[in-house]
Specification:
The complex is a heterodimer. By secondary structure, chain A is α/β, with parallel strands linked by helices. Chain A has helices spanning 2-12, 26-34, 51-61, 66-70, 98-113, 127-141, 143-157, 178-190, 202-205, 210-218, 226-240, 247-259, 271-280, 288-291, 299-304, 306-312, 322-334, 336-344, 355-362, 369-386, 404-416, 421-436, 512-522, 531-553; strands at 40-44, 75-79, 86-90, 119-124, 168-172, 445-450, 462-468, 477-482, 489-494, 504-509, 561-569, 575-583. In chain B, a hairpin with a 3-residue loop joins strand 4 and strand 5 (416-419). Chain B starts with 7 loop residues before the first helix and ends in a 7-residue tail after the last strand. Classes of the chains: A alpha/beta, B mainly alpha.
Chain lengths: 587, 509
């Protein structure tokens, strides 16, 4: 098991103190198991999220012998003094044999159902494993066992940690805030006391060692260090796009930023190779901003690590806009000051690593265009991670998610209760354009329109409903909330006329991609690349919403006439709703 | 399985030259009838039988075929307005006032006096917008069909009418080729047809649908549906009284009709899923006829940047299914030789006559070029050749054409034809297969159980006994499938070993 291996490694390299983060759920677990009436707990999450680690800490906290743990037993038991109950810890469900599982599940299920009171469980499991093996068992039993399984499944998918019907807490460690974890890890790495050992190294004196340089760039709070700030933002955004990085990958990422080396052969720097790079001034090989994306690894190796595949989806360095490219290419002539501050000033990874390529390019040398473009990409990445917070350049223009900066700001403001009307209006405009298939400029009301036929046509000209976007005491309205992760906006449709617990008619979480889609549609540009999924999601939402609203605000039918509302858009982008009344014959 | 004898009204019909495809699969499948038209024809039968209060609850005397007659409206004025009204836009553009437009238009419509529309719509342009709306939402509007074979989207009962020849006289069997009748019979023979009929009439073909009411407003005051209807004396023939496929098909109808979606949105998935079940029925029947004990199989290649091993497999698979129906016809005709009657005919005093009469009778054979001659085996061979040729002209084409039309297969020039799903079919499959949510690998297993669809390793192993291609090819196929579902907003991955397929429409409360 990974956790056991690490313990051995820490000892053999004599790392003290060991790098560790506060196990996010440990306090909750300890509180639970030291109480009079502890509740069964299951820890799920992707491999590398510290499930076993949590278990070990619980074991040790309640007096379990570390050497017994290290021995590798799959199931460990001890008696909890407060409650007198026997705590059964399953380090990893997937390690259990079929026979082990078939004896475990009846007891575990009974405990979870509240039928067994002398034992309490702490189980670590990958969620797929957990669902599959529990289901197999529950299906064979049927009845309430299967119902309980369904509740567990619901909790897992809906990311709820409790349910009134079960004596169970379910914590998905993958859902914890990767950004916060990463910060905690990086702090410990870059501020580790054993860096002192570098003090005697000659490379440390002339500030040339790339390892020390890279470490230095990562030091400082995210509030003041743009590198840390952007890394943190990227991890938050990835989470909001349902791409979660396990802790193991966060560690790996931190290490790679500091030690990554693009010289083929050995992907990480050692003291010796670092010295060589410093002597030959080959800093383009040790660029920490490229290391973020695993540039020191082969394509195949990069694909193996989630950290790099996830961060790659942001397209940083490949995406750009004219302002950035003008600065990087013509800046030395047109924007001298800016160029000095943002490019020249970085005497390792800035101008020195770029100047010669740019000069060749500007002088018309075209044999090394690819090298120039690579260097340009490295500069864009460097800028992304180093632009100060108050720069008039928006770093997110260098990513696929150009509106990501707006999203971060929007989420903060919604949570703080500040005014977000400008962005709300843009989002609603994007929705209106998507729902109606017309270039509507109005962002003050939400127009739900049908295309006729099976409803999937792109252009929808028959207005079904028009909803307010501001709070109202009587009419149904829509507004934005922020989901539990603190970042994902959620569009909710509310009916104020009914009790609060029934007032939510429907809701739609806007993942990062959705948000970007709406902001781009609102501003009139839309690349086909990621429009598909979003379009389908919004269309399904629209169809569902029209169906739900029909009984709530459908108008009373008149026997003698049909009345339709046709929606068109005028030259100024204003929607025009025309009431069409058609008298019916007697047929 | 109880086989029902075909009603003589069909076997003795002089325009039916042979009873072979019909005996195996029913009367009848036809490649010119697309899955949409199958659904429309079904709705027409349903509408009529629902009026008579027998919808999907038909009486069937012991081992006899249902005797069902029904009528389909012609709806001539409505269709004239929408599909045979070419000058309307020209008039709108060229006449200056609303009054001029009305009079110019009314002048050149001579079949009917549409004057009543001026009173109902008041504004000429408004009428045009409504007509355009119906045109733009017409079923398979992109197809070049004669105007009398163009169909409104079936918003309600007034949008359902007969396929007619140009003169609008007697019904035409080109596009309403009885496929919809077979669908009706299948659902009527499923376990709870009655409940289903209730669900259908509460959600589809509703009189109070807004657009159906608009369609009604296009009809003259004194228009009566009944006198202007086409009567179908007897419904087609479906050979087996009970089959699992009927229940499976009906179960999917129930599932779809239970979804929380605007009613009209249900028709597209109903069309696809019904045709898929009917294709599976055809393949299974063919296996039964050739007695190879095999089950239908649909190996899907999920579109990849480069050709994969799965595509090869899928091409073989679809070709096999195509050839299978030919083999079924051959086997069906061959069976005639196993009968005592064949031996008796051969040993009769005049074996040529005896064999000829036996075959003419047995297959309701009405040779087009006179009495077949030659020795008994020649006559038999002629029959077989004719049966195969006849089969190859229409029924044999159903599998490929329908599977392409419902988004189950693709054809590429130079590369062939193989099973590869489009987005609309995928969505329909999620709607029928996933109640709320389902683990991804269980979803794959269900696709196999229900539709014999093979995407991943496990199902391939089941279906083939051993893996017919590299395991990696299947794993990658599964990954691409997951990616596709995710792109459609139908899949959510929780962690590296757990993903859920989600039906965004859930089930009605």
């Amino acid at each position: 098991m990974y956790d056991e291996l690490i313990q051995t490694e820490i000892e053999s390299y004599r790392i003290a103190p060991a790098i560790q983060i506060k196990p996010a759920r440990l306090a909750t677990l300890l509180e639970n198991f030291s109480g009079n009436d502890p509740v069964n707990t299951i820890l799920t999450g992707t491999a590398g999220d510290g499930k076993t680690y949590h278990c070990r800490r619980v074991w040790e906290s309640f007096g379990g012998d570390p050497s017994i743990w290290q021995h590798g037993e799959k199931v460990s038991e001890l008696v909890l003094s407060a409650s007198g109950k026997r705590l059964v810890i399953i380090k990893d469900l997937s390690e259990l044999s079929a026979a082990d599982k078939s004896s475990l599940f009846p007891r575990l299920a009974a405990a979870v159902a509240g039928d067994q009171s002398d034992q309490v469980y702490l189980v670590a499991a990958n969620d797929g494993q957990l669902v599959a093996s529990w289901r197999d068992w529950a299906e064979s039993k049927g009845g309430s066992q299967f119902d309980n399984f369904r509740i567990l499944e619901e909790m897992l998918v809906e990311e709820r940690s409790e349910d009134k019907r079960l004596r169970l807490r379910l914590y998905n460690l993958s859902r914890l805030d990767a950004a916060a974890h990463f910060d905690a890890l990086i702090d410990q790495v870059v501020e580790h006391p054993q860096w002192k050992a570098c003090g005697n190294c000659p490379s440390a004196d002339d500030n040339a060692c790339p390892i020390l340089l890279n470490r230095e760039r990562l030091r400082g709070e995210p509030a003041t260090n743009p590198f840390r700030r952007r890394l943190s933002a990227l991890l938050r955004l990835a989470g909001a796009n349902r791409m979660h990085l396990p802790i193991r990958d966060l560690l790996l990422l931190g290490v790679n930023i500091i030690l990554g080396d693009q010289q083929p052969g050995q992907p990480l720097l050692t003291c010796k190779t670092a010295k060589n790079r410093a002597e030959s001034k080959s800093y383009k090989l040790t660029n920490p901003y490229a290391n973020v994306f695993g540039a020191n690894l082969s394509e195949k190796d990069r694909q193996k690590y989630q950290a790099f595949t996830v961060l790659d989806t942001f397209g940083i360095g490949r995406e750009t806009d004219n302002r950035f490219d003008n600065l990087l290419i013509y800046g030395p002539y047109n924007e001298e000051e800016h160029y000095k501050a943002l490019v020249e000033a970085d005497s390792y990874y800035g101008a020195p690593a770029y100047r010669s390529y740019l000069r060749d390019y500007l002088e018309g040398e075209r044999t090394a265009t690819k090298e120039f473009l690579d260097a340009l990409e490295r500069q864009r990445r460097r800028l992304f991670f180093s632009l100060p917070a108050d720069s008039d350049l928006d770093p997110w223009r260098l990513s696929v998610y150009r509106a990501a900066g707006v999203l971060l700001d929007f989420a903060d403001k919604v949570r703080a209760g500040n005014d977000v009307s400008v962005v709300t209006e843009q989002l609603i405009r994007g929705l209106n354009r998507t729902f109606c298939g017309m270039m509507i400029d109005d962002g003050g009301q939400l127009y739900l329109a049908s295309s006729g036929g099976d409803g999937r046509g792109r252009i929808a000209t028959v207005l079904n409903h028009k909803l307010r976007t501001t709070t109202h005491r009587r009419d149904i309205y829509v507004e934005f909330e922020i989901a539990e992760d603190g970042l994902t906006p959620c569009l909710v449709v509310l009916d104020p006329a009914v009790p609060p617990e029934e007032s939510r008619i429907d809701s739609l979480e806007l993942q990062l991609t959705h948000f970007e889609y709406l902001m781009r549609v609102a501003s009139g540009s839309l690349p086909a690349s990621f429009s598909r999924q979003c379009y389908e999601d919004f269309l399904d939402f629209k169809l569902r919403l029209i169906e739900r609203l029909e009984p709530l605000i459908g108008s009373e039918g008149d026997e003698r006439e049909v009345s339709l509302q046709a929606i068109t858009v005028d030259e100024d982008g204003q929607p025009k709703v025309e009431e069409i009344r058609i008298r019916l014959g007697a047929a | 399985m109880i086989r029902i004898e075909p009603p003589t009204v069909h076997t003795q019909n002089t325009s039916l030259k042979l009873w072979a495809d019909e005996a195996i699969w029913g009367h009848r499948f036809h490649n010119d009838q697309t899955p949409w038209l199958v659904l429309l024809e079904f709705l027409a039968v349903f509408r009529s039988r629902n009026e008579a209060d027998f919808a999907l609850n038909e009486h069937r005397a012991n081992n006899e075929h249902e005797r069902i007659s029904y009528h389909i409206p012609r709806m001539r004025p409505l269709r004239e307005l929408v599909f045979n009204n070419p000058h309307i836009r020209h008039i709108e553009e060229n006449e200056k006032t609303d009054g001029d437009r009305w009079s110019a238009w009314l002048e050149q419509t001579n079949e009917y006096d549409f004057g009543y529309l001026q009173d109902r719509f008041r504004n000429f342009s408004r009428l045009i917008r409504v007509i355009e709306f119906f045109q733009s939402t017409a079923i398979e509007g992109h197809r070049q069909r004669r105007w009398t074979s163009r169909f409104l989207f079936p918003y309600g009962p007034h949008c359902i009418y007969a396929d007619l020849p140009g003169d609008m006289s007697s019904p035409d069997r080109r596009f309403f080729a009885r496929g919809g009748e077979l669908l009706y019979l299948m659902l009527a023979r499923s376990v709870n047809g009655r409940d289903l009929a209730q669900k259908i009439s509460s959600r589809l073909v509703r009189k109070d649908d807004q657009w159906d009411r608009v369609a009604r407003a296009l009809l003259p005051e004194d228009y009566r549906i009944e006198p202007d209807s086409v009567s179908i004396g007897s419904i087609g023939y479906l050979p087996f009284a009970k089959r699992q496929e009927y229940d499976d098909l009906a179960a999917d109808w129930h599932r779809l009709l239970d979804l929380k979606l605007p009613d009209a949105t249900l028709l597209d998935p109903l069309m696809r899923i019904s045709a898929l079940h009917m294709l599976l029925y055809m393949v299974r029947r063919a296996h039964e006829e050739v007695k190879d004990g095999a089950e239908p199989l649909l190996v899907l290649e999920i579109a990849a940047p480069r050709k994969t091993a799965l595509r090869e497999l899928s091409i073989d698979n679809i070709n096999g299914n195509r050839r299978l129906t030919q083999r079924a016809i051959k086997a069906y005709i061959d069976q005639a030789k196993n009968d005592e009657a064949w031996k008796e005919a051969l040993s009769a005093r005049a074996p040529v006559d005896a064999v000829r009469n036996y075959l003419l009778k047995r297959f309701s054979w009405k040779p087009e070029d006179g009495t077949p001659g030659g020795d008994p085996l020649t006559i038999f061979d002629d029959l077989q050749a004719y049966a195969e040729k006849r089969h190859s002209e229409h029924v044999a084409k159903v599998h490929t054409e329908w599977s392409r039309q419902i988004g189950l297969s693709v054809s590429r020039r130079g590369a062939g034809t193989w099973y590869a799903p489009n987005d609309a079919l995928l969505k329909a499959l999620v709607m029928t297969t996933v109640d709320g949510r389902e683990e991804y690998h269980r979803f794959l297993a269900r696709l196999y159980d229900r539709y014999r669809i093979v995407v991943g390793v496990q199902e391939a192993e089941y279906a083939f006994g051993s893996l017919p291609a590299d395991e990696k090819a299947f794993t990658q196929n599964t990954q691409r499938f997951e990616q596709r579902l995710r792109t459609l907003g139908l899949l959510r991955r929780l962690s590296d070993d757990c993903a859920y397929v989600e039906n965004p429409f859930r089930t009605r409360a």
